[in-house]
Design a protein that fits this description.
Length: 312
Amino acid sequence: MIRLGTNVEFAFVASAGALGWAGHDEGHGIARLWKMLFRITGKLDTRAFAFFTKTLTLSPRRGNLRLFAPWRAVRYLGNGSFVNSVGLTNPGVEAWCHQYGPLVADRFRHGQKTFVSVAANTVGEIGKIVRLLVHNCGRYLHGIEIDLSCANWGSGLLIGDDLAAFSGQLLREAIRHTWHPIGLKFGATQDCFSALRACDGVASWFHLVNAVPWMDIYPNKQSPLSGYGYGGAVSGPAIRELSMKILKDAVARPFSDRERKKTPIISGGGVSTKEDVIERFAAGADAVAFGSLFLSKPWKPNEIVQHFRSVS
């Protein structure tokens, strides 16, 4: 369980991108229609999770997702796994506040915990992003996550000590501008353990991981998105083994020199059954994230959460 202050706690997460920009796949075309039935019948209820928005950038970003041809950016691989190269398609933070802020406010009143996922390539950008969020939607948000993992974004290419230095700079700048808890999200191939140690006791949580570059899962196989010039990132059960290894390594990391305190961890990547959840908690995760499962089986995450609530 992750506890943020006195009134916010969660053990389960709807990962960034899994349910759109406000909580029910607004603007995601076919995916939205697929999930609508389950939302209407109550089998998909975001109040059971800490909901993380699809990642936002300061300015609008066209990315690769086209509603008239979604197969150009997302493909189903079978067995619940996907490859995508959405490319941070998003309306920009200010437009999101105006377009989706009212929905977030309404869902806040009905019990949804909303965390905004954001990406920035400079300290100045993160300051502007956080100020816009706080000014327009601050009272309806439960936290902000800085996404350093996306390979379509400059910070997603950083590793090791460079990643540690940059993530620390972004984190401290974000904290300057808000009372909200701030978390950091890292990718599978970033060698993020220096960053975890550097930001222990400062970040409110670390999020590891929800997608892995195609070549790291299928080094000898061509991506189905290669015809459009993308490799893409794999999510779902295909990355389960790697994401578990990253969790175990993160839990085993030494304490930082500065703080005798370890920041809690959200573990995602291939979680699709209650047995997967049990395994993540047993390995030391403080919260468990669902991602692609919301697309392949939208009813399943709520079903799994309900199982754990019934036996607790």
